[in-house]
Amino acid sequence: MHRIFLLLLLLSGSLVARAQSDSYLQEVVSRLENSKKSTLLMAQAMPENQYGYKPVADEMSFRAQLLHMSQNVNWLTSSHLTTQQSPFTESNLKDTGQSKAVIEQLINQAFDYAIESVRVFDAGRLDEKVTFFAGPLSKRQIMNLVNDHQAHHRGQLVVYLRMNGVKPPAYVGW
After folding, report:
1. Which carries the bigger pLDDT value, residue 15 or residue 132?
2. Which of 70, 49, 53 lies closest to 61 in space, CA to CA?
3. Reported pTM
4. Which of 15, 84, 108, 174 is most buried, taking the most CB atoms under 10 A from its CB?
5. Domains of the chain (ranges plus CATH)?
6. Could you give the CA distance from residue 72 to residue 78 in angstroms, rounded to a whole number?
7. What is the Cα 142 distance to its own chain's centre?
């Protein structure tokens, strides 16, 4: 009887942990969807003739910030979260003076790739370690890093917009 109770206890704990991991992945998808929406709203808010704007010479331009964000989402996803082929080649995400419409398309593609990768991600692999230049990280930490990096650069975009007299879009995240 004790063995059956112990087995049931272990099984229920495993099911709870799995449900929590699945819930976490749903939260990551939601954050990525909000991040995509927020990034696109900022991209749309800046007039196209200001996409080359940078506040000082050693900063990235508005366009370069958006491309860097898309590149980072793509890199972290393709390198650490999925084996599905990236929608980008190395040259797709370099600043070549792309139009506003092209930038918005690239943002959509990068986020859609990450969102789909997380949707099909095996929750049992969240704690799996990956090699990262700053030291080993879990796949869960990589997912958090995608969000943190985006928040950092969107904060910079708010400043770029304000410096050009453009009211930033409202916060997206609730």
Report:
1. 132
2. 53
3. 0.86
4. 108
5. 24-163 (1.20.120.450)
6. 10
7. 10
